[in-house]
């Protein structure tokens, strides 16, 4: 609960300082579905746009365009700052704790720029962003199947 209160205070402070470009939320999940939100998860999310308590269920089986990866020790507040920093560069990203999806290597944070129905579209977004180096942008399949960790595509 203190994290939620701190997040709300940060949002209020940012809004008072001239508007909120990005926001963050951190909630621990029990892994049970949230019927009202149409979501399920076992992890923590920091995102830009709305406060979420789980990974959106409509993200399942979509390809994520990932434009940043961070060690899991990063705090949710630091990831919120990364979201805001990227917004300042013109990128609308969400920070996602990789533990939320079995197809992602656990224990990290990723900055997700967009999601797509196909890997080609996800990788093409890297090219459109001018991030054609595999260390700067890549596509991963979002799923709850650990076998899908091998599903990664690069723009180069």
Features:
156 residues; alpha+beta; six-stranded antiparallel β-sheet; globular; disordered N terminus
Provide a quick synopsis of the model:
The chain contains three helices and six strands. With 156 residues, the chain is α+β, with helices and mostly antiparallel strands. It has a six-stranded antiparallel beta sheet.
Write the layout of secondary structure elements.
Blueprint lengths: L1 H15 L28 E2 L15 E10 L4 H13 L5 E4 L10 E9 L2 H10 L9 E5 L9 E2 L3
Antiparallel strand pairs: 1-3, 2-4, 2-5, 3-4, 5-6
What does this structure look like?
It contains three helices and six strands; from the N terminus they run αββαββαββ. The chain is of the alpha+beta class and 156 residues long. It has one domain. A six-stranded antiparallel beta sheet has the order 1-3-4-2-5-6. It is globular.
Number of continuous helical runs: 3
Radius of gyration: 15 Å
Sequence stretches where pLDDT stays below 50 over 5 or more residues: 1-47, 49-53
Outline: globular
- The oligomeric state is single chain
What composes the largest sheet? Answer: 6 strands, antiparallel
Record the strand order, biggest sheet.
Answer: 1-3-4-2-5-6
Q: Please provide the ordered H/E string of secondary-structure elements.
A: HEEHEEHEE
Q: Got a strand count?
A: 6
Rounded mean pLDDT score: 71
Distance between the termini: 44 Å
Which structural category fits the helices and strands?
alpha+beta
Number of domains: 1
Q: Helical percent range?
A: 10-25%
Instruction: Please state roughly what percent of the residues sit in beta strands, choosing from under 5%, 5-15%, 15-25%, 25-35%, 35-45% or over 45%.
Output: 15-25%
